[in-house]
Amino acid sequence: RKPLSLPRLAQMHAQGEKISMLTAYDATFAAMADAAGVDCLLVGDSLGMVCQGLPSTVGVTLDTMRYHTESVARGLHRVQGTAWLIADLPFGSYQESREQALRSATVLMQAGAHMVKLEGGGWTTETVRFLVERGIPVCAHLGLTPQTVHALGGYRVQGRDDAAASVLRQHALDLQGAGAAMLVLEMVPAALAASLTQELTGCATIGIGAGRSTAGQVLVLHDMLGINLGKMPKFVRNFTADGGGIAQALQAYVRAVKDGSFPDDRLHAW
Ligand code: KIV
Ligand code: NA
Fold first, then answer.
1. Protein residues within 5 Å, CB atom, of ion ligand 2
2. 6-267: what fold?
3. What is the rounded (10 degree) CA torsion for 56, 205, 134, 44?
């Protein structure tokens, strides 16, 4: 398959082909996910919990994100991978100023990322515009934004009432206007994610706990492989549950996202 690119992703979006995304934190899993046909790999700051044992993503540093992004990029390079590589800008690495965001994004792009992701709406619009104008593709992230968990008061569904939904919608439109090519929607009502997906023709929505109508889906790799000590988030499906191996689970995930059988309605009751 040809390497994924921004134009190719835009084409998939326009043609209604679902975009599959998983997190990846190391070289070997990155290569395996790529071989299974996963479109986009996200070096998520969820690695703070998954790899580092932190209580939240707040403690993840830019240097740690650089390390894991380099590892994933090397894994892809070794197998001549084709996945689109996105890396999270961690907490505190982009909030200070647009210039700080550019410096931090540069670190991740030089580590091998093709795109950076940052959380939040409103104040982030000008930051996104600043990065995009300077040649850095950006993925935005609205709804449950884990870096601000302490301000949100917990890991809970966002955009439930009309006022919150209309703020979220305006943030999404502004981020699209600033040039964000993708938008992760985390734990928002399925109906809100569906209507935003309809409205945002220039920005592909990627859902996690946001129903089945988004342009793509993302899960934390370890969650979908059943590698999880605590209770699994409700929106996760364990793709190893039928007894297959890891490669089969990754392939099954791609298939289920592409044919729309993941997620099903049971997995998103909000
Ligand atoms: O860090 C992460 O894994 C993420 C995804 C869940 C979207 O941001
Ligand atoms: Na993240």
1. 44-45, 88
2. TIM Barrel (3.20.20)
3. 20
